[in-house]
From TrEMBL:
The Aminoacyl-tRNA synthetase class I anticodon-binding domain, residue ranges: 346-492
Organism of this sequence: Streptomyces prasinopilosus
Functional summary from the UniProt entry: Catalyzes the attachment of glutamate to tRNA(Glu) in a two-step reaction: glutamate is first activated by ATP to form Glu-AMP and then transferred to the acceptor end of tRNA(Glu).
Record: residues binding ATP: K266
Name of the protein in question: Glutamate--tRNA ligase
Domain Glutamyl/glutaminyl-tRNA synthetase class Ib catalytic residues, every copy: 9-329
Motif stretch ('KMSKS' region): 263-267
GO molecular function, one term: tRNA binding
Location relative to the cell: Cytoplasm
Sequence motif 'HIGH' region, location on chain: 15-25
Amino acid sequence: MASASGSPVRVRFCPSPTGNPHVGLVRTALFNWAFAKHHQGSGAQFVFRIEDTDAARDSEESYAQLLDSMRWLGFDWDEGPEVGGPHAPYRQSQRMDIYEDVAGKLLDAGHAYRCYCSQEELDSRREAARAAGKPSGYDGHCRALTDAQVEEYKAQGREPIVRFRMPDEPITFTDLVRGEITYLPENVPDYGIVRANGAPLYTLVNPVDDALMEITHVLRGEDLLSSTPRQIALYKALTELGVAKETPVFGHLPYVMGEGNKKLSKRDPQASLNLYRERGFLPEGLLNYLSLLGWSLSADRDVFTIEEMVAAFDVADVQPNPARFDLKKCEAINADHIRMLDVKDFTERCRPWLQAPAAPWTPGAFDEAKWQAIAPHAQTRLKVLSEITDNVDFLFLPEPVFDEASWAKAMKEGSDALLRTAREKLDAADWTSAESLKEAVLAAGEAHGLKLGKAQAPVRVAVTGRTVGLPLFESLEVLGKETTLSRIDAALARLAA
């Protein structure tokens, strides 16, 4: 795919460094990145830009966090921070002279004008318009002020903002996701582009940067759809001034919905990207799920690699309907990606949790050989990597941490007799074979009229502290004969007490 003029695809991702990255924002980055990667063979490029003109909310900490998040997700960019490029700088706070120059050109050409209306006057006129059943947007009061009126406002000490002059005609464009859309002029009034203190607004800086960076396709959230006719009119003016080469093609991505069918907001706990990193989601698992929020590889396949997504991604296949974020499905897809890992890769990805200061065992208790032996079995059980500590703690703690509910559930009447028989059978078993250990517990169960499932429950709790966990007999083999029998003895003593 190319732009309207035939030039290669250039897309951008331009977040503001305000707090933790939001999963809806990540979905936007993913679709832009995948779109560029899909067309990379024809010269497509992905531009990463930082919109940091809001000094009250932006922070260097959030900026560093954004870059770290992009790297963690595996998003590489052709132009932007730390990479550079022909359109540098890529932080809006470093481009203020550019915006001032463009605003001046818009004023000189008559595409913009100074507005002296006070907030009280604006509110009063809007309320009157609503009462009369008319559109309540800006009414164009300062569109054609006389020199005398301007001098009077200046004498009153009023500081004007700069407004862009919208055309008095409908604006129609074809959205890549939603098809043809038309906005009537009465619904898109003149709008501010520069504050009274001279600071440029998003409504100016975003289109100006897109124009100067030669962005051909703008893929962004549905919440920005209403600003598109304003930007299209501004692009036309910028093209007349020689600032822009063309108007980009727009595609507005569907809302990501949270609980209660409300738009997922930054305040929702499940919205924070950091939450998923801390819980041990794989970047590839999280991105797989986020890609399903508005797009699909095929009707009968939810799990795929990022490479497969890139190969198949087409903006035309994005659905306009809101997509609901389902945490359980996200976890299930992540679990599939954990199982898709090479075992060696899996063992390394778990290390931040296994060797963290918060791990429940002392640092010296961690046994690398035991971890390597149990890892293939642990890999089949996890939904997220942070679950690894609860699954393997019995290997590295001096004694199991008993879940009292699990103890009560497993240690029923007759459990002591079963455990004594199981100990006897296990003592005689071949400890180089998990199958031999299984046969020992099976034989113990048969001696007491129990099937394997019932027979192994007290053994599992005695040795691991829990009723569920990793495959029992492989776990016993890794734990070793001496420790296993010692823990069964401790459980028998507890039952006797």
